[in-house]
Amino acid sequence: MEEEIEVVAFACRGTLLDWSGAIEAVAYELARCNGESPLDRGAALRRRVETLADGHGLARGFERLARERGYRGEESGEESLARVVALARPLRGAREIVAHAVRSGKRLVAVSRAENPGALYLFGGAFEAVVSDPREIAVPLESILYVSAADWRRAEARRRGMRAVAPDELGLALAPRALAAVRTPRHTIMAA
């Protein structure tokens, strides 16, 4: 028998929150304060920060960017990251998807590497916890539904034993199994 979904775990970055726009804004402002005028409004700098972070967090990426480009007297990588967190906003449709999950009655958690995913307050206290890895939740892995816009994150969650869906598939995944599996017969006046 299939295990019931107990927890819906939402990836923050790129699924709930627009981190890319916030990173671009902070990187652009750092460049402008150092005499640069990026024509792409920070998109290339965002990509560079992400590359320089090398899986060790955005604070490290911002510190390496400042060192690489010779930025002087600027804020620390942690301060840049704090500004990114403060600027991050919900992606289009994210509030509605979270509201749907809340109505399902399942426990909701947010998955974020940031210690302070500040913009989550914009979801009205929907999340009972913020974890860096869904495996930290004290439930069987197969009862966790991981929601991410990133194909590779969903594949990783499945490899670890969780169920995983894209945000636009959440409604179907949370539909009661009995209703999804059974079609209601249509009554007609026609005899078979």
H and E string: EHHHHHEEEHEHH
Report strand order across the widest sheet. 3-2-1-4-5
Let me know the largest β-sheet: 5 strands, parallel
Return the structural class: alpha/beta
Average pLDDT for all residues? 85
Number of domains: 2
Q: What is the alpha-carbon Rg in Å? A: 21 Å
CATH topology of the largest domain: Rossmann fold
Question: CATH architecture of the largest domain, please?
Answer: 3-Layer(aba) Sandwich
Amino-to-carboxy terminus distance = 35 Å
User: What is the 3D form?
Assistant: elongated
According to CATH, what is the class of the largest domain?
Alpha Beta
Q: Uncertain runs with pLDDT below 50, 5 residues or more?
A: 178-188
Query: How much β-strand is present in the residues?
Result: 5-15%
Helix content: 40-55%
At the fourth level of CATH, the homologous superfamily of the largest domain is HAD superfamily/HAD-like
**Number of contiguous helices:** 8
How many β-strand runs?
A: 5
